[in-house]
Amino acid sequence: MRKLSKFRILMLAALLIAALASCNKDDDDNGDDNNGGGGSAGTITATIDGEDVDFKSVDANKALGLIAFDGSEGVYSLSFLLPDDIATGTYDLNSSNLSYSAICEKGDDGYMASSGSITITKHNESTNKLEGTFDFTGSGAAGEITVSNGSFSLEYKEAK
C-alpha cells in the first residue's frame, strides 16, 4: 500500500509539472503579472495540523484540460489539480481520482489527500477567476496531516 501511495504522489507531481511547464510567463515581462512566473495569483490560506498558514507565493495555471494551483510559505506547500471546466459545487478529494487532487508538503514530507473535499464557490471562465474552500486529510510515508479551514481566491493564467 505504501508503494502505491508514493506512486500516486509521483503521478500527481508529474501532472502538475506538465501543466505548469506548458504555461508561458507574460510577454510584457514587466513584473506586475498577477499569475505565473512565481508571482502572486491570489490568496490561499489554511490551517495545517493546527497552524494557520497564509501562503505568500501563489501560482495558478490552466493547461492540458486542467487547472493547477499551488501556494508555498515556509516549510509548507499546497498543490491542487482540477478539471478546467469545473463548475460550482463540492467535489471529493481523494487518491482514487487524480482530476480532483491535492497534496500538502511539510518540509521533505508529502501527503496526498486521502479524504476531504473542495468546494468551488465561483468560477468565471471568461476572467479566469476561481474561488472556493477546502478541507482534507493527507496521507504519506510520514503518516497523516490535517488541512482544514482552507480557502482560495485566485486568477489562473492560460497556456498560450
Number of helices: 1
Major beta-sheet overview: 11 strands, mixed
The whole-number mean of residue pLDDT values reads 82
Percent of residues in helices comes to 10-25%
Total strands: the figure is 11
**Radius of gyration, in angstroms, nearest whole number:** 15 Å
Beta strand %: over 45%
Q: What's the shape?
A: globular
Count of spatially separate domains = 1
Strand-pairing-aware structural class: mainly beta
Detail the poorly predicted runs: 1-11, 17-39
Task: Report the end-to-end length measured between terminal Cα atoms.
Answer: 39 Å
Helix and strand pattern: HEEEEEEEEEEE
Would you write up a description of this structure?
The protein has one helix at residues 2-21; strands spanning 42-48, 51-55, 57-63, 66-73, 76-83, 89-92, 101-106, 109-124, 129-140, 143-155, 157-158. With 160 residues, it is mainly beta. It has one domain (2-158). Strands 1, 2, 3, 4, 5, 6, 7, 8, 9, 10 and 11 form an eleven-stranded mixed β-sheet that branches. The radius of gyration is 15 Å and the shape is globular.
Highlighted features:
single chain; 160 residues; mainly beta; 1 helix; 11 strands
State the gist of this model.
The chain is mainly beta and 160 residues long. It is built from 1 helix and 11 strands; from the N terminus they run H-E-E-E-E-E-E-E-E-E-E-E.
List the helices and strands and how they pair.
Blueprint: H1 2-21, E1 42-48, E2 51-55, E3 57-63, E4 66-73, E5 76-83, E6 89-92, E7 101-106, E8 109-124, E9 129-140, E10 143-155, E11 157-158
Parallel strand pairs: 3-11
Antiparallel strand pairs: 1-2, 1-10, 3-4, 4-5, 5-7, 6-8, 7-8, 8-9, 9-10
